[in-house]
Structures are given as C-alpha cells and as structure tokens.
Design a protein that fits this description.
254 residues, alpha/beta, TIM Barrel, 12 strands, globular
Length: 254
Amino acid sequence: MITKRIIPCLDVRNGRVVKGVNFEGLKDVSSPVELGKYYSDNGADELVFYDITASYEDRTIFTDILREVASTIFIPLTVGGGINSLDDFDRVLKCGADKVSVNSGAIKNPDLIYQAAKRYGDQCVVLSTDVKRVDGTFKVFSKGGRENTGMDALEWIKRGVDNGAGEIVLNSIDTDGVKGGFDLEMLSAVCDIVKVPVIASGGAGKIQDFVDLFNKIPDVSAGLAASIFHFGEVTIRDLKLELNKNGIPVRLIK
C-alpha cells in the first residue's frame, strides 16, 4: 500500500518564511534553512519551498537561499515561485530541487507544462493551483491568489495533467490559514477527474483534519501544511503516529 505523505510548506518572502490567512496578513516565522533542516530531520516526507512574491514582483527565485536549503535536507524538495520558462526549471533543478512547481507561469504560457514534461519528465512537473469559490464555482487565481483569472479550476487542472503535469497541489484560498480543516469538497472534485497524485493544501488546524482528509478522500496522496507545523501546534511525529493508529499508511521514523 502506498504511504500517505506529510509535507511542510515554506512560504518564503525576502528570504524569510512567512504565513498568513487567506493568502493575506503575512507574518515572519523563521529562517527557511533552519526550518527545512528541522523538518528533514523530524519525519517530513517532502518539503515544498515557495518564493511567494516572485511572480507578483516579476522576478526570478532567490537561488542562493534555495541552494542552501537543498544542501541541508535529505528529503525530496519541490520548488515554486517565478517559474516562467524552461530556463527557470533548469536553474532551480541545478540548485537542488527534485520537482518544480508552476502556477502563474503556466497560466501565462500553458505550453510550459508540456515543454517541461517533455524535457524533464512528468514526475518533475507539479501544477500548483490557487482556487477560490466565485459564485458557486471553482475559479483559478494567479499571482499568489491576488488575481481572478476567470478560468474554471477543474478544466484547468485536467488540461494541465493532459499536458504532462505529474502531480497537483490544490491550494484552497477559502480555507488557507483558517485551520478549520481541508477543503474536502474541492479536493474530491479534483480527485474525480485526474489520476495523478493530488496534494491537499490549505486548512489544516489539527491532527484530526489529516485523519479526516485521508479517510474521506482516499485518493489524496499527501497533506501539506505550514503554520501548524511552524508554530509547533502539531509535530510531524505525533501526526504520523495518530495516522498509523487510524490505519492510514505512513512512513514512520525511529
């Protein structure tokens, strides 16, 4: 049985990890290098590094910090933020990333997913999508959740997978940072239309939220969270022990 992955997320702005609510009100948390090493040493299955203002500020990712994070961890690293071209893919992979996450860059150039998958393989290309309900439908937002693209999220995600995205990170803006649980309705809708791994992001507030996620939507491959791990509200070890107790397969460390 394939184990469920637990993935801490480092939202990085100006070289520091930050966290907000509904993508707003960002507060300083810690150094991405120190936090990344802590998670790598304490049972995280993967790590996600997002340079969250790179697309909005129309610049490339901070490669010096990324390189330092990659050199101190021993788990797979997914990197996103300001990924607009194959050169950007190449640059972050050379800095130590295992997978590259595209969001706004793919919206501007949908062919980027196909080009990257062809060059680096589907397993390297992650489509991260920021989704919010607008008039009862799921809409794609870009530039760190600032702009409504008007695109239907389910159609966009299916198109991305058809073009070669090997994994989906579904970020629910509606539940981000609220700590009321993952957006099960949104996740279920996405899992119904794609066969690649889907990572749930946005809403985790306690251990039971992960238990509910994996029990109610078995097709979800991983749970991603930030603040509950960053602020020590939940440790990855305690979370995995509880998931294991509930019959959910996870990788346990000694």
